[in-house]
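Q: For a teaching session next week I want to show students how multiple molecules come together into a single three-dimensional assembly. I've collected the sequence lines for a complex. Could you give me the predicted structure tokens for the whole thing so I can convert them for display?
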Amino acid sequence: MKISDIMKRDVVSVTASATIGQAVDLFVARRIGTLPVVDEANRLVGMLLLSDVLELVMPDFVRMIEDLDFVHDFGAVETQKPSQAILARSTAAVMKKPVSVEETAGLLRAVAMLRQHNLRDLPIVADDGRLVGIASRVDVGAALLVSWGISRSSNTTATGGT
Amino acid sequence: MIPGILSILIFAVSLGLILSEKVHRTIVAIVGAVVAVGVGKILNFYSEAEALKAIDFNTLGLLLGMMMIVAMLEPTGFFQYLAVSAGRLSRGNPVWLFMLLGALTSVVSMFLDNVTTVVLIAPVTVLITEILGVSAIPFLLGEAILSNVGGVATLVGDPPNVLIGSAAGLSFNDFLTHALPLVAVVWLVALWLLRYLFRAELDAPPANLEAVMKMNPTEALEDWKTARRVLIILGAAVALFFVQEPLRLTPALIALGAAAAALAWTRPNMHELFKRIEWSVLMFFAGLFVMVGGLEAAGVMHALAGLVAQAQGMPMVLFGVIVLWVVALASAVVDNVPITIALIPVIQGLGAAGVEAAPLWWALAFGAGFGGNGTIIGATANVVVASLSERMSTPITSALWNKRGLPTMLATCVVTTILYVLFFPLFRG
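A: Of course. Below is the structure for the complete assembly, covering every listed component.
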């Protein structure tokens, strides 16, 4: 089975000039975790992850202390919000380099890409680089499990969000 | 003449490159050492055997031993436990927190080197200040300065002391009787001055006090079993340092012995442990030793000592004060380790020429130790807190350091000078 057989074709994406604030709206409205960033020809140029946006309010100590079990209350930083200036920046400033596979990619290869890049969602592009679909870790993983032939359910088409 | 000029050139170019920070200092030290030996062999004034002899293995052994002990203690969360306890003890009062963390940093840095101390305490400091909702800057800058100050108090507290102790034959107890009382006074001055300079930040009421009290220090201590074992051995090592002279033990043997005992008792993963050892620091030292050995073999140090000895007749106390300030000002802009390694043979040469060396060793130790506080690049601990703060919303800038650190450095050096002059007879013995 190929990735194009199971991918979602209705992809929510933004352009690099969209602001982080606009991206935040899309994350909330569509309940997604990954926003592919495309140019005017719909070619994939980057990805904006929900986790990268959350990183904007992550306190510094989280990156410095390995085991945070002993901190039971984040106190003053618990209610920290990004400033208007940060929300007005373009997604280009925060986005990651894109990771994608072609439509003909196999499912195991897609799982390996997600694993290697530690991603939740994998954009799928056509030969000319145009964004044509997206598949989540659950979409690809469940489809691969079905191919083992031991599950009674055979619903391989993605329906839910990512 | 030519060997002397070439050795000076090699050392000067290396020092310039280390200063410029364009090339990693350890690369400079290794290349410089190899060039020094190569030139020495061609011109027949410096051999491999002499180069090996120039490396002070007592210094390297002591540093390596202490590094291994810290590497075993660090993952246990023991230092995290201490810093979190200090946070709770302060009840969220920024001034108390500043004093408690400062005191903790100084005491820890008396036994561990300054950089390690700061690396261990600073993350928890950022944690406490962030959940309190106060600026981390006074705390981080203060910790770097107070760890540099605390390190001067003991033989093992910072690398210049290790070098000086080894070269001058000063024992752990010598530092406790000469350096510790002076450091205690200087420490109070530094703490008071920093508290005053940061009054605006420290007097601002914290946004959230309760969160600090909800931290649980015992949960921060990940592995008490290992921590207890390493601490018992560390305690035994400190006890041995006290009786080092009558037992005729070198500090290196004590430190490596303690590391060996702790390794055997806790049996850590050696691959993980060795990742925590700063091999590049040890190689940097070795390279510098070899380069300075070349200067010595070429007769440069002897000639320099002869020049300085011309100034005979100058009162020893004035000579000491001059050394203290020259070293302090130089240490504010250059790493104090190369300065110390370069000056050791000069003072040894002066001693051989009949000049009283004892007070000069102390002047060197105090100058190198307190001088580094003057600028953001003056000491490695400063660089560490500055680079840590670069990821934060308000980083520590060089300009800020000049406004807070430089006055503190000058004040500590003035106080040191007064005490040095008043108690000069003590530093002769």
